[in-house]
Known about the structure:
Elements: H1 3-15, H2 25-45, H3 50-59, H4 88-97, H5 102-113, H6 120-129, H7 132-139, H8 164-174, H9 182-202, H10 214-221, H11 225-239, H12 243-251, H13 254-264, H14 269-282, H15 289-294, H16 297-305, H17 310-323, E1 336-340, E2 351-356, H18 391-399, E3 403-408, H19 428-441, E4 449-454, H20 456-468, H21 475-479, E5 481-487, H22 511-514, H23 521-537, E6 540-546, E7 550-552, E8 556-558, H24 563-566, E9 572-576, H25 592-604, H26 606-610
Parallel strand pairs: 2-3, 2-4, 4-5, 5-6, 6-9
Antiparallel strand pairs: 1-3, 7-8
Helix pairs in contact: 1-2, 4-5, 7-16, 8-9, 8-11, 8-13, 9-10, 9-11, 11-14, 13-14, 14-17, 16-17, 19-20, 20-23
Amino acid sequence: xxxxxxxxxxxxxxxxxxxxxxxxxxxxxxxxxxxxxxxxxxxxxxxxxxxxxxxxxxxxxxxxxxxxxxxxxxxxxxxxxxxxxxxxxxxxxxxxxxxxxxxxxxxxxxxxxxxxxxxxxxxxxxxxxxxxxxxxxxxxxxxxxxxxxxxxxxxxxxxxxxxxxxxxxxxxxxxxxxxxxxxxxxxxxxxxxxxxxxxxxxxxxxxxxxxxxxxxxxxxxxxxxxxxxxxxxxxxxxxxxxxxxxxxxxxxxxxxxxxxxxxxxxxxxxxxxxxxxxxxxxxxxxxxxxxxxxxxxxxxxxxxxxxxxxxxxxxxxxxxxxxxxxxxxxxxxxxxxxxxxxxxxxxxxxxxxxxxxxxxxxxxxxxxxxxxxxxxxxxxxxxxxxxxxxxxxxxxxxxxxxxxxxxxxxxxxxxxxxxxxxxxxxxxxxxxxxxxxxxxxxxxxxxxxxxxxxxxxxxxxxxxxxxxxxxxxxxxxxxxxxxxxxxxxxxxxxxxxxxxxxxxxxxxxxxxxxxxxxxxxxxxxxxxxxxxxxxxxxxxxxxxxxxxxxxxxxxxxxxxxxxxxxxxxxxxxxxxxxxxxxxxxxxxxxxxxxxxxxxxxxxxxxxxxxx
Length: 611
């Protein structure tokens, strides 16, 4: 019966009633009539096609048909999936990504990453059904949509009456105390000591020196938890350089605990970078890859890769490169960062350019664009946490896309009082062996190489090349070296070690500074040996030198590397009107300092880049 006919019948029934209605009854009947009309009209308006609803529900889930587990039967899990025509592309790409042929798998990942027209549920299908290789490949594809990555699984709850800081301390205490050098022992002891005192202070149970320890407790209570956590993290970074200790970190829930810390300290880049250093070291161990993927770190790093902050994206790139065994054969150990290319690329890489910083430098901040006329040594990290300009990554990579650009990082100090580890009195010879081993693991020597160094970094480059020349397994490093750029390198020493000016820096000059003194026998031997070696190998060399003094602390200014010390004895020597800190920091892209550097790289690698 139609809605209109039903209303007419109701009206007639009201109009032909035999007994007169009581007062008000008539209007109540009329109201009931129209209320009934509205309800029926609404019901008709909201009638749904249940088949459409069911189809949409089907899109939100993945239904896997049960197959026999009999190994004798060959089943294709994708051959029996019931899907609509417009869904074929998603499932065909998934099938390709699981192919036995590597080329087919890589092509499937590339096609997925270039797809930007899918609905949310289609990205979710890929996220739920892809294997770890595909997930890592998508994370290392520049155009990938972040909807390919599921949120990390829920983290386990903290133990009752516990805190993140306390659990981090317990993780550190659970790690083996074997195979440790003096520096790891130092960091571990310091972290456990500081965190124990801090925790005791927070719980109000700290007494010291036979009296009330309240003032002492208050002093610890004022220290942010991130500060205490940094002690523990720095120790765990050192432990994670040992493979067997990585196994313990994973077995004791370290991946989840570090993820909790990573989320808690979103506004503390230094904490996050140390956490990423640990994950990057763990990723060097292929048997831990599945655990790293399951814990959700790939999704977190996929997002970090897209960060505008170069340090964050470069740490993430190192982790994902160490996880990506489909397209990366090299392994990037702690302190070795690829600035370009950070994603998978079809661009053939024909040569390597390596950047080695000097005293108080770092892998990123040393190579930033010049930012002030009077940069001072005493604030090496204060304002650099979010400083993102790095000319090798932003300028050189665009001008020479066929290069792999690597920057390395190692700890240095001006004074033993400011040394990160008092036991770490490492000589240039020790550091050069350590860096050479790490760079060889990263595949340095497999392609033509240009070395670029600043200050003490140039001495390390010289020592590394001399060491490589004595080891048959390192011969490719020598044979493929095409050229070297030295930015104010003190080949003949520096007066820096002679000054004992600011108690915070130079009262007790570090071993690195002492080795830079003009009367250092080791420095003279290094210069004589390398000059003869470089002439024999006919290396192309370019030397830059500062002409302006540098402010050291707030007390004096010093010409750190005079012109005569920067003269290697071969290659051009170019004076530049800047100080020691800015000699490797061009003011802008068209500045002479950058353009001359670019010209040298292109000339040294001309034949290699043409082929």
